[in-house]
């Protein structure tokens, strides 16, 4: 087997290209992709590590995120691996300041990506030194954040903060005098219209919201995004759910919802139309023979997409249990990077908020996203008769660069067939 073939087997196409150009030793690069394949982010991390050190960096060192200079008792704090296909983050907040003492494992800086917010801990105890980046900066995987000089904590004499407090109170009082009846919060800026005296509140966007906005706009600018629609009669699915709800909950410890049926229907359709489960990587198309289904969840901080890994191997009970667990984690803010990495296709349910029709935006680098909407009773023609049926609009947004219109329409028709007759999932028809 040739070296070229070995690299293709070990690394994703974009990663293999960089490895070949830089003439890197693949045995020294830690792979974090599916089945241990090397991603572009893994290569970038490795390049940053060897750039910051004259010695070769072992695979174990890369996996553990840091490099240490034991002679000088110093340790560099680097941007950790952020997840599959995520190669950069924004420095949201320095939790610790220059010159402060930090304990081992104590959070020192907060990073934000378009998927998650994470804290980078101290690897050793010592003094935080050499802050290499500022709040708001964009940093790549493996980039230097700061340095910690090993040492022990010393007693510090704290200066009284009375004078500082008085200054702050005075400043707030001056601002309040603009409108004595309504004190103004220091974190908000109030602008008074001279024309109609209406108040406008200006609040800065969070880093996460900015990252989400940037990523969604990039999806529109990069992909040739189109949307196709269809409607589905929910009668059969609702009847099946009603008939087996109690026994399903007793057996699996979780309620039977609609989402598990749509997940299974999507997997069946993706198997028939693999282009919808693929992604573009440079001049290559990566066809994925596994099904990691992202389920979009709205939170107070923004939209997050936890992923059901290998959803085709899950039973209905396991699917519903995992979805319920994701919803709980999203609510309390405990979703991690691993929960949201590696998705191949996304399902969004705007119907839970009452949406009757929408055009969902792709979740890059994915090529398709399915939008579910509100179940609404409507008169429809059944043969020669008009009947009232519970109907739902479905929408499939897709990247027209690799998904043809015929495939997109047929994909949505296949989901319609399964939902209108769920027995197809059992018999494989």
Task: Identify the CATH architecture of the largest domain.
Answer: 2-Layer Sandwich
Overall radius of gyration: 26 Å
Average pLDDT reading: 79
Shape: globular
CATH class of the largest domain: Alpha Beta
Number of strands: 22
Summarize the amount of helix as a percent range. Answer: 25-40%
Tell me the structural class: alpha+beta
Look up the CATH topology of the largest domain: Chloramphenicol Acetyltransferase
SSE topology:
Layout: H1 3-10, H2 13-22, H3 40-51, H4 59-63, E1 67-69, E2 74-78, E3 88-94, E4 101-102, E5 107-112, E6 117-121, E7 126-129, E8 138-140, E9 144-150, H5 162-176, E10 189-192, E11 199-202, H6 207-222, E12 225-233, H7 235-252, H8 259-272, E13 278-281, E14 284-287, E15 293-295, E16 297-299, E17 302-304, E18 307-308, H9 316-332, H10 337-340, E19 345-349, E20 368-372, E21 376-382, E22 385-399, H11 405-420, H12 424-427
What this model shows, in words?
This protein is α+β, with helices and mostly antiparallel strands. It has two domains: 3-150, RNA polymerase II/Efflux pump adaptor protein, barrel-sandwich hybrid domain (OB fold (Dihydrolipoamide Acetyltransferase, E2P), Beta Barrel), CATH 2.40.50; 224-427, Chloramphenicol acetyltransferase-like domain (Chloramphenicol Acetyltransferase), CATH 3.30.559. 32% of the residues lie in helices and 26% in strands. The chain contains twelve helices and 22 strands. The chain has helices at residues 3-10, 13-22, 40-51, 59-63, 162-176, 207-222, 235-252, 259-272, 316-332, 337-340, 405-420, 424-427, and strands at 67-69, 74-78, 88-94, 101-102, 107-112, 117-121, 126-129, 138-140, 144-150, 189-192, 199-202, 225-233, 278-281, 284-287, 293-295, 297-299, 302-304, 307-308, 345-349, 368-372, 376-382, 385-399. The strands form six sheets. Strands 12, 15, 18, 19, 20, 21 and 22 form a seven-stranded mixed sheet that branches. Strands 1-2-9-7-4 form a five-stranded antiparallel sheet, with no helix packed on it. The protein has a four-stranded antiparallel sheet with strand order 6-5-3-8. Helix 2 packs parallel to helix 3, helix 8 crosses helix 9 (316-332) and helix 8 packs across helix 11 (405-420). The radius of gyration is 26 Å and the shape is globular.
